[in-house]
Amino acid sequence: MFLTMLLLGACGNQDSVFHTDPSTETSDSTSRVPWDYRVVESTVGDLIGSDMTVLPDNELLPNDGNYATGDKIWTLQFMDAELVTDADQRNEIRLSSWTTLKSYGDQKTAAEDLKNLKVSITTDVDLVGVYKTQYKDKTRNFAVLELPSGNRIKQPIDDKRYTALEKAKTASVVLEEVHDFADYDSAYAKFRGWAK
Protein backbone atom coordinates (compact mmCIF):
# COMPACT_ATOMS: atom_id res chain seq x y z
CA MET A 1 0.00 0.00 0.00
CA PHE A 2 2.80 2.37 0.97
CA LEU A 3 4.64 1.60 -2.31
CA THR A 4 1.49 2.40 -4.36
CA MET A 5 1.08 5.77 -2.59
CA LEU A 6 4.75 6.55 -3.19
CA LEU A 7 4.41 5.80 -6.95
CA LEU A 8 1.22 7.88 -7.28
CA GLY A 9 2.86 10.76 -5.44
CA ALA A 10 5.81 10.62 -7.85
CA CYS A 11 3.48 11.19 -10.82
CA GLY A 12 2.93 14.79 -9.72
CA ASN A 13 6.66 15.42 -9.15
CA GLN A 14 8.22 16.91 -12.29
CA ASP A 15 11.66 15.55 -11.40
CA SER A 16 10.35 11.98 -11.18
CA VAL A 17 10.65 9.45 -14.00
CA PHE A 18 6.96 8.69 -13.40
CA HIS A 19 5.92 12.27 -14.16
CA THR A 20 3.22 12.29 -16.88
CA ASP A 21 2.65 15.96 -17.73
CA PRO A 22 1.09 15.93 -21.25
CA SER A 23 2.76 19.22 -22.20
CA THR A 24 6.18 17.57 -22.13
CA GLU A 25 5.17 14.65 -24.36
CA THR A 26 5.62 14.92 -28.12
CA SER A 27 3.01 13.54 -30.44
CA ASP A 28 2.13 13.63 -34.11
CA SER A 29 -0.40 16.15 -35.37
CA THR A 30 -2.93 14.70 -37.83
CA SER A 31 -5.40 16.53 -40.04
CA ARG A 32 -7.62 15.51 -42.96
CA VAL A 33 -7.72 17.90 -45.94
CA PRO A 34 -9.31 17.93 -49.40
CA TRP A 35 -6.63 16.85 -51.91
CA ASP A 36 -7.97 16.61 -55.47
CA TYR A 37 -10.98 16.28 -57.79
CA ARG A 38 -11.40 14.89 -61.27
CA VAL A 39 -14.18 14.44 -63.83
CA VAL A 40 -14.43 10.96 -65.33
CA GLU A 41 -16.52 9.73 -68.25
CA SER A 42 -18.55 6.73 -67.09
CA THR A 43 -21.42 4.47 -68.12
CA VAL A 44 -24.63 3.71 -66.24
CA GLY A 45 -24.81 0.06 -65.24
CA ASP A 46 -27.65 -1.64 -63.38
CA LEU A 47 -30.60 0.36 -62.03
CA ILE A 48 -31.39 -0.59 -58.43
CA GLY A 49 -34.53 1.13 -57.17
CA SER A 50 -33.83 4.86 -57.31
CA ASP A 51 -30.06 4.26 -57.51
CA MET A 52 -27.69 3.22 -60.29
CA THR A 53 -24.32 1.52 -60.54
CA VAL A 54 -21.61 3.46 -62.35
CA LEU A 55 -19.21 1.47 -64.51
CA PRO A 56 -16.36 0.52 -64.62
CA ASP A 57 -16.01 0.62 -60.79
CA ASN A 58 -19.59 -0.49 -60.01
CA GLU A 59 -20.11 2.34 -57.52
CA LEU A 60 -23.65 2.98 -56.32
CA LEU A 61 -25.01 6.53 -56.83
CA PRO A 62 -28.47 8.10 -56.69
CA ASN A 63 -30.02 8.17 -60.18
CA ASP A 64 -30.96 11.86 -59.93
CA GLY A 65 -30.85 12.34 -63.71
CA ASN A 66 -33.20 9.42 -64.48
CA TYR A 67 -30.51 7.77 -66.61
CA ALA A 68 -31.02 4.45 -68.38
CA THR A 69 -28.64 1.49 -68.42
CA GLY A 70 -25.90 2.15 -70.97
CA ASP A 71 -26.15 6.00 -70.85
CA LYS A 72 -22.86 7.92 -70.95
CA ILE A 73 -22.49 10.21 -67.93
CA TRP A 74 -19.71 12.20 -66.25
CA THR A 75 -18.92 11.79 -62.57
CA LEU A 76 -17.12 14.06 -60.13
CA GLN A 77 -14.59 12.13 -58.05
CA PHE A 78 -12.89 13.28 -54.86
CA MET A 79 -9.69 12.35 -53.02
CA ASP A 80 -8.70 13.55 -49.57
CA ALA A 81 -5.44 13.27 -47.65
CA GLU A 82 -4.38 12.65 -44.09
CA LEU A 83 -1.47 14.93 -43.19
CA VAL A 84 0.69 13.75 -40.31
CA THR A 85 3.24 16.24 -38.94
CA ASP A 86 5.76 14.87 -36.45
CA ALA A 87 7.62 16.72 -33.69
CA ASP A 88 10.46 17.58 -36.13
CA GLN A 89 7.95 19.28 -38.50
CA ARG A 90 8.31 16.51 -41.09
CA ASN A 91 5.15 15.80 -43.08
CA GLU A 92 3.79 12.46 -44.18
CA ILE A 93 0.84 12.39 -46.60
CA ARG A 94 -1.56 9.43 -46.88
CA LEU A 95 -3.91 9.72 -49.86
CA SER A 96 -7.36 8.13 -49.93
CA SER A 97 -8.78 6.31 -52.92
CA TRP A 98 -11.04 8.15 -55.38
CA THR A 99 -14.68 8.46 -54.23
CA THR A 100 -17.50 9.30 -56.66
CA LEU A 101 -19.63 12.20 -55.41
CA LYS A 102 -22.01 13.27 -58.13
CA SER A 103 -23.15 12.50 -61.67
CA TYR A 104 -23.75 14.84 -64.62
CA GLY A 105 -25.51 14.44 -67.94
CA ASP A 106 -22.91 16.53 -69.79
CA GLN A 107 -19.22 17.27 -69.46
CA LYS A 108 -19.63 21.07 -69.50
CA THR A 109 -21.67 21.16 -66.28
CA ALA A 110 -19.20 18.81 -64.58
CA ALA A 111 -16.27 21.04 -65.64
CA GLU A 112 -18.01 24.13 -64.22
CA ASP A 113 -18.39 22.44 -60.81
CA LEU A 114 -14.75 21.33 -60.95
CA LYS A 115 -13.62 24.89 -61.72
CA ASN A 116 -15.28 26.10 -58.49
CA LEU A 117 -13.72 23.36 -56.35
CA LYS A 118 -10.11 23.78 -57.60
CA VAL A 119 -9.15 27.47 -57.72
CA SER A 120 -5.79 28.79 -58.94
CA ILE A 121 -4.53 31.86 -57.04
CA THR A 122 -1.36 33.95 -57.10
CA THR A 123 -0.15 35.14 -53.71
CA ASP A 124 2.91 35.83 -51.56
CA VAL A 125 3.94 33.19 -49.02
CA ASP A 126 6.58 33.22 -46.30
CA LEU A 127 10.03 32.17 -47.46
CA VAL A 128 11.78 30.21 -44.72
CA GLY A 129 15.06 30.31 -46.62
CA VAL A 130 17.20 28.98 -49.46
CA TYR A 131 20.12 26.56 -49.36
CA LYS A 132 22.57 24.67 -51.57
CA THR A 133 23.64 21.05 -51.54
CA GLN A 134 26.75 19.72 -53.22
CA TYR A 135 27.69 16.20 -54.22
CA LYS A 136 30.96 15.68 -56.08
CA ASP A 137 30.89 18.40 -58.76
CA LYS A 138 27.09 18.94 -58.83
CA THR A 139 25.30 21.68 -56.89
CA ARG A 140 21.55 21.88 -56.31
CA ASN A 141 19.57 24.81 -54.90
CA PHE A 142 16.37 24.64 -52.85
CA ALA A 143 13.84 27.08 -51.42
CA VAL A 144 11.76 26.27 -48.33
CA LEU A 145 8.30 27.87 -48.32
CA GLU A 146 5.59 28.00 -45.66
CA LEU A 147 2.13 27.55 -47.18
CA PRO A 148 -1.03 29.16 -45.75
CA SER A 149 -1.88 25.76 -44.19
CA GLY A 150 1.29 26.03 -42.05
CA ASN A 151 3.02 23.16 -43.87
CA ARG A 152 6.55 23.72 -45.12
CA ILE A 153 7.60 22.51 -48.55
CA LYS A 154 10.96 22.31 -50.31
CA GLN A 155 11.23 23.23 -54.01
CA PRO A 156 14.28 22.94 -56.28
CA ILE A 157 15.33 26.27 -57.84
CA ASP A 158 17.89 27.43 -60.40
CA ASP A 159 20.85 29.75 -59.69
CA LYS A 160 18.99 32.87 -60.88
CA ARG A 161 16.04 32.28 -58.52
CA TYR A 162 18.45 31.37 -55.69
CA THR A 163 20.11 34.78 -56.03
CA ALA A 164 16.73 36.56 -56.20
CA LEU A 165 15.39 34.80 -53.09
CA GLU A 166 18.59 34.75 -51.03
CA LYS A 167 17.66 37.81 -48.94
CA ALA A 168 13.88 37.80 -49.46
CA LYS A 169 11.32 37.17 -46.70
CA THR A 170 8.41 36.27 -49.03
CA ALA A 171 8.02 34.71 -52.48
CA SER A 172 5.30 35.12 -55.09
CA VAL A 173 3.81 31.72 -55.99
CA VAL A 174 0.86 30.09 -57.74
CA LEU A 175 -1.26 27.95 -55.42
CA GLU A 176 -4.11 25.59 -56.20
CA GLU A 177 -6.77 25.93 -53.52
CA VAL A 178 -8.77 22.69 -53.22
CA HIS A 179 -12.13 23.15 -51.46
CA ASP A 180 -14.09 20.50 -49.60
CA PHE A 181 -17.23 19.53 -51.53
CA ALA A 182 -19.31 19.20 -48.34
CA ASP A 183 -17.84 22.28 -46.58
CA TYR A 184 -16.63 24.87 -49.10
CA ASP A 185 -14.96 27.02 -46.41
CA SER A 186 -12.59 24.14 -45.65
CA ALA A 187 -9.74 24.27 -48.19
CA TYR A 188 -6.14 23.18 -48.67
CA ALA A 189 -3.59 25.07 -50.78
CA LYS A 190 -0.97 23.22 -52.84
CA PHE A 191 2.10 24.72 -54.52
CA ARG A 192 1.76 24.83 -58.32
CA GLY A 193 4.68 27.03 -59.40
CA TRP A 194 6.43 30.38 -59.19
CA ALA A 195 4.46 33.50 -60.10
CA LYS A 196 7.48 35.46 -61.41
Short recap of the structure:
By secondary structure, this protein is mainly beta. The chain has helices spanning about 1-10, 105-115, 160-165; strands at about 30-50, 50-55, 60, 70-85, 90-95, 100-105, 120-135, 140-145, 150-155, 170-180, 185-195.
Structure, explained:
14% of the residues lie in helices and 54% in strands. It has helices spanning 2-11, 107-117, 159-165; strands spanning 29-48, 51-55, 59-62, 72-85, 91-95, 99-104, 118-135, 138-146, 152-157, 170-179, 187-194. The strands form 2 sheets. Strands 1, 2, 3, 4, 5 and 6 form a 6-stranded antiparallel sheet that branches. Strands 9-8-7-10-11 form a 5-stranded antiparallel sheet. Strand 10 and strand 11 form a beta hairpin.
Mean pLDDT level: 86
How many H/I helices? 3
Rg over CA atoms, rounded to whole Å, is 25 Å
**Strand-pairing-aware structural class:** mainly beta
Structure summary, number of beta strands: 11
User: Terminal Cα separation, in Å?
Assistant: 71 Å
Poorly predicted runs: 1-8, 13-25
Largest sheet: 6 strands, antiparallel
- String of helices and strands: HEEEEEEHEEEHEE
Which bin fits the share of residues in helices?
10-25%
Q: What is the percentage of strand-forming residues?
A: over 45%
Shape: elongated
